[in-house]
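We emphasize that the prediction below concerns an isolated chain of 427 residues; any contacts that depend on oligomerization or on bound cofactors are therefore not represented. The input was used exactly as deposited, without trimming of termini.
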Amino acid sequence: MEPTIIIIFVLIYLLTVLLSATKAVPMSIAALSGALLTAWFGLQYKVFTYSEALDFIDVKILGLIIGTMVVVEVAKKSGLFRFAALYAIKLSEGNPGRLFVSICIMSAVASMFLSDPTAMLLMAAATVTVSKLLNYDPIPYFLSATIMINLGGTSTLIGSTSNMIIGVALGMTFADFVSYLLLCEVALWALTIFVLYIFFKKRLGKKKALPEYTPWQSIENKKLFYRSIFVLVLLVFLFLTLENLGVGPEAVALGCAIIALVLSNSDPAKIFKGLDWETVFFIAGFMFIVGGIQKTEILSVVSEQLFVLVGGNPLNTTLTTLWFSGLASAIVSNVAIALTFLPIVAKFSSLNPNLRPPVSSALVLGTNLGGATTPLSGSVCMMAVGALKREGISMSFSEFAKIGVITSILQLGFSSLYLIWRFGLGV
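Result of the prediction step, given as a token string:
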């Protein structure tokens, strides 16, 4: 491949990443514009044919993402997640320490099923309500909820968009995620909550009596509430039994989405309107860009050079993947990092099949853990800052980054030790 062509494609990739990271234009516009340029130059210079270009976008990944979004949107409209948040707050009985832990756990649990922006909106509403009623400083609760939302769902296939992309592309099942990463996530929850509590302990406030309320009052349609629980349980059950079904996770997600739409009796147009189409189009566009770069074989060369650099050693390869993807995700969308690293990790696995489990797990952890380092690390962080600003509360970049950097480094450090232990990399 001519160097000029490779440079053009790399520049298109870098321009897309820059526009996405700086939010100069919406992420979907940046990715789709990059895809258009990739298609134009790729076809003009005969880097790929039109039929080959059609294969750049993995419809299985998009099917999994859209199907899961529909199920979650129906559950959200039923009030299920708000009910859970209000119930967790009620259990705290006005104790600031218990309330803090409840919000942290509920934030992480919500993000296992909801998209991160949706989980942030839910927890922001709950946190604002409680902090106003009890006259607490909202910043410790807001920041902690943001960090836990970013961490939550690391060990499930549907826990984050980057997880879905990695899982489908690398053939990781729902059971693989749980087997490889559940223990690590539980430990990370405990470690992160402990660190956040120590950091914010003096700012949590004093014990106060909560106003009388019943979480059930937030449920307007109990029939839809129970049906949403049924569909979510069915979705997880089918994901766990995929090997016996003979279908992919995207088929399960789309099938459950159809069941959710039928059982909800809701207007499909309203459900579809609530989906995160910005993310869907960003992923599709970025897939196309990465697919074009792959055709130049530059990613294959980079993979082989990295493999040589780390000596083909499983320990070095795994930790390099973890830290590089983690630090990169602090600056660039973790979806973009996941899509960029997939060809590299796939190449690592082809060079040494034993690397697939540890390196895939490292990529999952890295892309998840780096997303709450600064206010600019991701949409969740920016939404948290924006929610505070709407309430007339300002928070400086350094105030967010101080705890964000500490928790991200601790999480990546602990994950390094976990991966070494889980996959016997130090042996």
